[in-house]
Write a structure and sequence with these properties.
Blueprint (H helix, E strand, L loop, with lengths): L1 H21 L16 H5 L25 E4 L1 H11 L1 H21 L5 E16 L4 E18 L5 E13 L9 E13 L6 H4 L1 H64 L6 H35 L11 E4 L12 H11 L1 H23 L3 E14 L2 H10 L2 E11 L5 H68 L5 H35 L20
Helix pairs in contact: 3-6, 4-6, 6-7, 6-9, 6-12, 8-11, 9-11, 11-12
């Protein structure tokens, strides 16, 4: 009965240790589920059934609770993009995953509790001078211990063994007999896998991977904010383009009224009224195209900022509250190229990959060495007719074992390790060449962004001059028409050229703002006065 209680007690201790280690759960456990898609959903393709419009040109009803219009500054746009953008939310998880991987690697040196419980019952035949008889034994063993990995690559094991044996052999002095033993063993590699650098290799790689993930996330933050800026200015340009087309429609409407008045007075032919009506109708198409483009630009901006009250399906109109920055900047190529080399995350990622590869080469050099392991075991033994007697002898330390061993394994040829090491050297050469090529491409990207910024500034000046001239020309055409020297077609063409000039100016202003965004992106920075300090998704353990 005492023996059974002891075995069940040891079993309970081991089970408790396992449960204590394995019962850590996340705050929000994910239930298991199995997804099975119906066959018809995968195989059948349904036709699109569109109902006919009951009332053409019906006004769009705003969503319940959604504002008809909202003013948005570029700063608020950036803040919402940082807070809500779905692409950024997905990328912010990457550093957390890499951090957990690093934490798992750092836990490789944690001690482990182990227990082995074994019961055996044997019945072996033994031949004697007269007959064959059976040697029967009933044995139970419990081995409890702790295993501790070392940063030197070795392992220390501490264990306690308890054994009870009952046999039918009369040669045993104690029957049943209790044997106990406690000891410590050390296993230490001397060449392959030896030393701190070899044992910490996987942890170093995980640290590099964490920094690479953070560099990629930083690049994604810059990419998302740059995309938000571009979408904001393109949406602002689309709104101004619509205003130009509406203004052109009003000018065409004024020309129609002018033609009617003069035709009624007999100063112009009736055909001028038709020409003015045709010109006014032609402006409707431009308005429709401008409105469609504005809705498309608004949806793109709403997708990026992903604000709950501004979904892509919401009819809320976004009114830009930030005016374009009409400042000409002095652009120095050497300083901007140097800033790009310092801040571009693509280069930093390559540098980290090169450092990672250097660590891999060092580890593979170690793996090409022979296996030489030194092992030492010290054990104290006890024996008695009862378990208490056995443990008393164990405490007296009368019987001790010492075992010293050396294991040697030398690969013949070792071609696999040598080839793997050479491949690692070639990969490092490839990364170095890629880094130099990326540096040259970044330099070209910065210089091109500088040229584009200056060109767009010159476009603004040229477009403004063109607008002034086209406005004067349109006024002159109207005066000529009132004097009977021009037709409505001439006036409408002049007004169309004025609208095109205004559109060109809007486009130049927008492209100048976008070129500044591209220049900042090329240098690995952001526009604006405030810095951005992003944080990864917090871990569950925090």
């Amino acid at each position: 009965m005492n023996n059974k209680r002891f075995f069940w007690g040891c079993f309970a201790v081991g089970l408790s240790a396992v449960l204590a280690v394995g019962c850590d759960t996340t705050p929000e456990p994910v239930p298991f589920y199995e997804m099975r898609v119906p066959r018809e959903r995968l195989r059948q393709i349904e036709p699109l059934q569109l109902p006919a419009a009951a009332e053409p040109n019906a006004p769009v009803q705003p969503a319940q609770g959604a504002p008809e219009e909202i003013k948005l500054t570029i700063e608020q746009c950036r803040a919402w993009a940082l807070q809500n953008n779905l692409e950024l939310k997905a990328e912010l998880v990457s550093p957390t995953i890499a951090a957990e991987t690093l934490s798992a690697e750092e836990a490789k040196f944690e001690a482990s509790f182990f227990t082995r419980i074994q019961y055996s019952k044997t019945d072996r035949p033994i031949g004697t001078d007269l007959f064959v008889q059976g040697s029967q034994s009933d044995s139970g063993t419990v081995d409890l211990g702790v295993e501790l990995p070392l940063q030197t690559g070795g392992t220390i094991t501490l264990d306690l063994v308890d054994n009870r044996t009952l046999t039918n052999q009369i040669s045993y002095f104690y029957n049943p007999s209790y044997t106990t033993g406690t000891g410590v063993s050390i296993s230490q590699p001397l060449l392959r896998n030896a030393g701190h650098r070899a044992s910490m290799y996987s942890i170093r790689l995980s640290r590099y991977d964490l920094q690479i993930a953070e560099a990629r996330t930083r690049l994604e933050v810059i990419t998302v904010l740059a995309a938000a800026d571009r979408a904001y200015w393109r949406m602002a340009a689309a709104r101004k383009e619509l205003e130009v087309r509406l203004q052109q429609y009003e000018l065409a409407k004024a020309q129609l009224e002018r033609a009617r008045r003069m035709a009624a007075a007999g100063e112009q032919a009736e055909v001028e009224v038709l020409r003015a009506q045709a010109g006014m109708a032609a402006q409707m198409e431009q308005i429709i195209l401008a409105e469609t483009n504005l809705r498309s630009r608004q949806r793109e901006l709403k997708r990026i900022i992903n604000q709950l009250s501004l979904t892509v399906q919401s009819p809320t109109r976004i009114v830009p509250a930030t005016e374009p920055d009409l400042i000409r900047y002095e652009l120095a190529a050497p300083e901007l190229v140097a800033k790009a080399v310092e801040n571009r995350m693509e280069l930093l990622e390559l540098e980290l990959q090169i450092a990672r590869q250097v660590s891999t080469i060092d580890y593979l050099k170690n793996q090409a060495l022979p296996v030489v392991n030194l092992e030492y075991t010290y054990n104290i033994n006890g024996l008695g007719a009862t378990r208490s007697d056995s443990y008393d002898m164990l405490q007296e330390n009368r019987f001790a074992d010492h075992r010293l061993g050396l294991t040697l394994l030398i690969p013949l040829g070792n071609e696999a390790a040598k080839s793997t090491l050479r491949a690692a050297f070639y990969q490092r050469m490839q990364l170095l060449a890629t880094k130099e090529n990326r540096k040259a491409l970044i330099e070209i990207e910065v210089l091109n962004a500088m040229d584009q910024t200056e060109a767009n500034w010159q476009r603004i000046l040229a477009a403004r001059q063109n607008v002034l001239l086209e406005a004067r020309l349109a006024d002159a055409e109207i005066r000529q028409f009132e004097n009977g020297l021009r037709t409505s077609t001439d006036v409408l063409e002049a007004q169309a050229r004025l609208a095109d000039a205004q559109s060109s100016e809007i486009q130049a202003l927008t492209e100048y703002q976008i070129s500044l965004v591209d220049l900042a992106y090329a240098t690995g920075t952001l526009l604006g006065a405030a810095k951005v300090d992003w944080q990864p998704v917090p871990s569950f353990k925090n």
